[in-house]
Amino acid sequence: xxxxxxxxxxxxxxxxxxxxxxxxxxxxxxxxxxxxxxxxxxxxxxxxxxxxxxxxxxxxxxxxxxxxxxxxxxxxxxxxxxxxxxxxxxxxxxxxxxxxxxxxxxxxxxxxxxxxxxxxxxxxxxxxxxxxxxxxxxxxxxxxxxxxxxxxxxxxxxxxxxxxxxxxxxxxxxxxxxxxxxxxxxxxxxxxxxxxxxxxxxxxxxxxxxxxxxxxxxxxxxxxxxxxxxxxxxxxxxxxxxxxxxxxxxxxxxxxxxxxxxxxxxxxxxxxxxxxxxxxxxxxxxxxxxxxxxxxxxxxxxxxxxxxxxxxxxxxxxxxxxxxxxxxxxxxxxxxxxxxxxxxxxxxxxxxxxxxxxxxxxxxxxxxxxxxxxxxxxxxxxxxxxxxxxxxxxxxxxxxxxxxxxxxxxxxxxxxxxxxxxxxxxxxxxxxxxxxxxxxxxxxxxxxxxxxxxxxxxxxxxxxxxxxxxxxxxxxx
Length: 477
Ligand code: DLL
Known about the structure:
4-stranded antiparallel β-sheet, single chain, binds 5'-O-[hydroxy(phenylacetyl)phosphoryl]adenosine
């Protein structure tokens, strides 16, 4: 079956309109370096000017056309959505205005786990060109698939992000996000190339080599987690570099974890660049859902592709306009794995005021927290339930444990765990072997290193109510 979605998509005037715009943007494959200065005097650049500068009324018309189609598409192709809509007693033709989205049921991370690995695919495997995976709440990863067109859409979103930061041809990108199942590496890679930039696929780690490349290759754009950028700045000093003289950095593209204005100030002053916050999640392609433009006042959310809502995480009801809530997204053109009303668990406020850069796409005013217990450790998502699952599988491990997260510059994970009393008292007990086994198991499940400390049975304070298993000592400004 060749390219199913476009046919479905082609039928309406709005779809043709949108397609025309996209073609226009691609025809002028050269990114447009509009030289209209923003109120602060920065040059404003666009990758797809027509789509990026679209007025709110047009965006909404396009969203509605796409919403109708994607709901029909998902219901026709994904048994999970067919059943969900039936249970909610909504047929796809009942979607007549954008607000009707609230009649549709939510999709949550557990639905991806329950349909693991391929149950949410709307196309046969022969149409999928790429997969990525992120942490699930237990040992099973969350799987996401892309058709060729999905990957193109993702690429265009990330290219828009680069353009919004002021990137231009001739820029050299050092991409220090992890390459592999994590979407950071390849996402920033594809988008950078589409923007016509030279991309170094560094991946994360090997700090000395990162610094050497930064100097010798004349890196102008650093893409990494904000904590790794801070670490690079510290290490640069330690290694005898003067970042402002030795490096040519001018733009930082930092995301995958929450960060603050204080961190922005530190990274900008120590590395001599302008730091831009980028947001995304694997379920929504990966990085590139939203980015801070040169105004650095909130992250433009590409609302022609992602229909957003903010809800009260307790009740699921929409929040008042402009009020902080949990971000919920419907992917408007996703072919391989359409997601309807996906609850991200990320908390933020969305601002719909016009921005000085000329984009009307609303702005996420920083993701400041989560409505679940997911921890982000050095950009890697870790659910406490994954730690518990892994520990409880290991013979000799007791029932009491504690997860401590701390940060000097980089995040540190420390797992303190009691040994089972019978094992602890046995003459054959070898603490080194048990510690090693736990360390390896955690590393394989979480993909981050945890310092493991074995404890005598009874060491951890027993609580009468809910056990407090996680202590997060990081300061979150
Ligand atoms: O972190 C994708 C990404 C890669 C984003 C590179 C930006 C840059 P996941 O591993 O699925 O995907 O993690 C997604 O990370 O739900 C948020 O909780 C958090 N997150 C991502 N970006 C930001 C940000 C990638 N800018 C989860 N600020 C999301 C705060 C962020 N939290």
